[in-house]
Amino acid sequence: MKLLIFAEVYFPDILGGGEFSTKQMTEGLVKKGHEVVVYCLGKCNCEEEIAGVRVIRNYIKGLTEHFLSATKNNSVTDPFTILSKLLHKWPDLYYSRKWYKRYKAIIQKEQPDLVHTVSPMSYLGRVNLWRAAYKLNVHMSHVCRSPRLLELDFCGGLLNCYNIHRNKKAASYLTALAAPSKFMLERHNLAGIKGKKFNNVIYNSVDFEKNLLTFEQFEKKENLVIYAGRLTKEKGILTLIQVVEDLENLKLLLIGSGALAEKIKKNERVEIIDWQEKETLYIYMKRAKAVILPSEWEEAFGRILIEAVYNGTLGIGSDRGGIPEVLGYDENYIFKAGDVNGLRQRIERVISLSSYEYIKEIEGQQNIMDLFTNSKYVDNWEKFFLQQLNY
Asked: What is the b/e burial string over 34-46, where b = at least 16 CB atoms within 10 angstroms of the residue's CB?
């Protein structure tokens, strides 16, 4: 099977957890003997091979800078204004001769068995890519890792209904649709955005063995809670900071960057460090009593919680999106988004656990998260693609 993937960016350029999930999927499929080609944006026009995956990067002025400015590993200024976004949004929703010909030429050149998009391809002529594959009789699929097909990140949501209407029509070109949680898949399907043949939940995963926490390791833990990700309002950062200000014996470490960073730096109770490579991030996780995902928008999944639990640290998350699925719907670890008291109670409970109680609870969370192993993840993606070829 030859799979052609389109993404906004690809490793080592990282926007969020989606890029790690894509890397796991592509490299896992290559190990199974499949050919995988990725087209994405980059600082220059170039081609390289990463762990057997052929990666073709294209520089497109404006678009490249817009996306790389949001990555964790590049220092680039975003040139886009609201007007720029509106102008570039047009080919995402309507036919564009330029974008259609571009994607048609790439597909004809690569001759894949299937085409797949792993990101919304915002401002990159999404509907024209889907249409080109359909017209060439190549199966086209998409994974919804965010609600971007339902919600626009500008105009305060005024155009969301129209955005859904257009994406519903565009979805007629898709053979199949996937999402990393039941919540995210059902939400798209209810809006009429679905694959013509089938729709699958494929849970994200981690690619390392779980740490079976010992009493000695527990004794090294601090009254520390960690958040890792974008420092933006919709991530619930302000709620988390308010909780920490109420708990004098608690430290908060924020790992990442974003619009709220400068404001947060003025708070003496909070430490901020830039995004870390996984190995370093996991060292910080092991020091903490809890990793918090306090999102106030609909997370597609909550990969950071799996990473925390597999490192021997309890995860706490809000009730938004797919987060409750990751936490096994256990109310001991789930609070109502934006509820300061609810989050405070759960943090206080966790940091007060004895070593025996903590180890017992982390074992319970790890058992739940055995659903999210790398082998299952890659197997499910392989089945998803092969199932399309059987139609």
From this structure: bbbbbbbbbeeee
CB 122 within 8 A of CB 8: yes
CA atoms within 13 A on the CB side of 228: 26
CB proximity list for 277: less than 8 A, separation 6 or greater: none
The answer to whether residues 80 and 62 touch, using CB atoms and an 8 Å cutoff, is yes
Which structure tokens are listed for 353?
A: 């656990």
Best CA proximity match to 89, nearest among 69, 195, 81: 81
pTM score: 0.84
> Is 375 exposed, middle or buried (CB count within 10 Å of its CB: 0-12, 13-18, 19+)?
exposed
Q: Residue 204 pLDDT > 80, yes or no? A: yes
Average pLDDT score, the chain: 92
Closest to 114 (Cα-Cα) out of 58, 176, 30: 176
pLDDT at 155: 66
Strand partners, 366: none
Tell me the C-alpha distance between 128 and 17, whole Å.
26
Report residue 249: phi and psi, to 5°.
-90, 15
Pairing, β 53-58 against β 46-50:
antiparallel
Alpha-carbon dihedral sign for residues 51, 64, 98, 137: positive
* Closest to 215 in 3D by CA, of 92, 355, 390, 344: 355
Rounded to whole angstroms, what are the CA distances from 80 to 64, 86, 89, 99, 123?
A: 11, 10, 12, 19, 11
